[in-house]
Design goal:
about 70 residues; membrane; transmembrane helix; 3 helices; mainly alpha; transmembrane; about 80% helix
């Protein structure tokens, strides 16, 4: 049985992956402004990369405190 931490990690990865897919769909849609869709897709990719390397929480702590961990 998976622990709560493992379940949360997999759920977070799934949500970020769905966000990437949704950003790509928006980018390909001709009725959506390309610039805004590109920003959404770019932020999704950056967030996904940060999450995969475990840098989201340290980045939030750094930005909130103004000093590294």
């Amino acid at each position: 049985m998976m622990s709560f931490a493992e379940t949360s990690q997999y759920a977070g990865q799934l949500l970020l992956l769905l966000n990437l897919i949704w950003g790509f769909i928006l980018y390909r849609d001709p009725n959506v402004d390309r610039d805004r869709a590109f920003i959404v897709l770019f932020l999704s990719v950056i967030t996904f990369i940060l999450y995969q390397f475990g840098l989201v929480i340290p980045l939030i702590r750094f930005l909130s405190n103004g000093k590294p961990i």
